[in-house]
Amino acid sequence: MDHHYSLESDLTCLFHRYRQARLGPPIGLVDIGVSNIAYIFRVSPWPCQISRCEIQREGRVCIQGVVPEIAIPSDSGCLYRMQQLAPPGPFSITFNLPGQVDPRLFSPKFRPDGIFEVVVVKLGVRIPTS
């Protein structure tokens, strides 16, 4: 399904959503948007902890992190483990952006809703100063 998103007042992004096939919930759910000067991607990492995001000039993105073991203590002292979550341990999500980028010019952030969002400038694009 495609979604339109206004990155700036005159820039329109087209998002393509896909996810990697894995056991457990959709950890690798990724939205990719395209504008005239940059790409934006959003990753839903919950309940994972992202430790590294590497972006290569060719547009290849690799996000690494850890899925923590989640256990909920009960009143009786037993630990309930969440079976619907992905198995604990390291994970990586790798995908390709639609074109080449300048890996020095990217802006990662965690949104308040837990989504990891990154804007990266296309290779060879001049960024307007005003």
Question: What does this 3D model show about the protein?
Answer:
InterPro entries: IDM2/3-like. The protein is an all-beta fold and 130 residues long. It has a single domain (2-122), classed as Immunoglobulin-like (Sandwich), CATH 2.60.40.790. Helices cover 0% and strands 57% of the residues. The chain has strands at residues 2-8, 11-18, 29-34, 38-44, 49-55, 60-67, 71-73, 79-81, 89-96, 101-110, 116-122. The protein starts with a strand and ends in an 8-residue tail after the last strand.
Question: What topology emerges from the helices and strands here?
Answer:
Layout: E1 2-8, E2 11-18, E3 29-34, E4 38-44, E5 49-55, E6 60-67, E7 71-73, E8 79-81, E9 89-96, E10 101-110, E11 116-122
Antiparallel strand pairs: 1-2, 2-3, 3-4, 4-11, 5-6, 6-9, 7-8, 10-11
InterPro entries: IDM2/3-like
GO cellular component, one term: nucleus
Summarize the structure.
This protein has 130 residues and is mainly β. The chain is built from no helices and 11 strands.
Features:
three-stranded antiparallel beta sheet, 130 residues, 11 strands, mainly beta, six-stranded antiparallel beta sheet, disordered N terminus
The residue ranges in which pLDDT falls below 50 over 5 or more consecutive positions are: 1-25
The domain tally reads: 1
- With strands numbered from the N-terminus, the spatial order across the biggest sheet is 1-2-3-4-11-10
CATH architecture: Sandwich
Q: Helix proportion of residues, in percent? A: under 10%
Number of strands: 11
Mean pLDDT: 75
Query: Which sheet architecture does the biggest sheet show?
Result: 6 strands, antiparallel
The CATH topology, please? Immunoglobulin-like
Rg, Cα atoms, Å: 17 Å
Secondary-structure class: mainly beta
SSE string, helices as H and strands as E: EEEEEEEEEEE
- Tell me, briefly, the overall form: elongated
The percentage of residues in β strands lies in over 45%
* Top-tier CATH class: Mainly Beta
Give the distance, in angstroms, between the N- and C-terminal Cα atoms.
34 Å
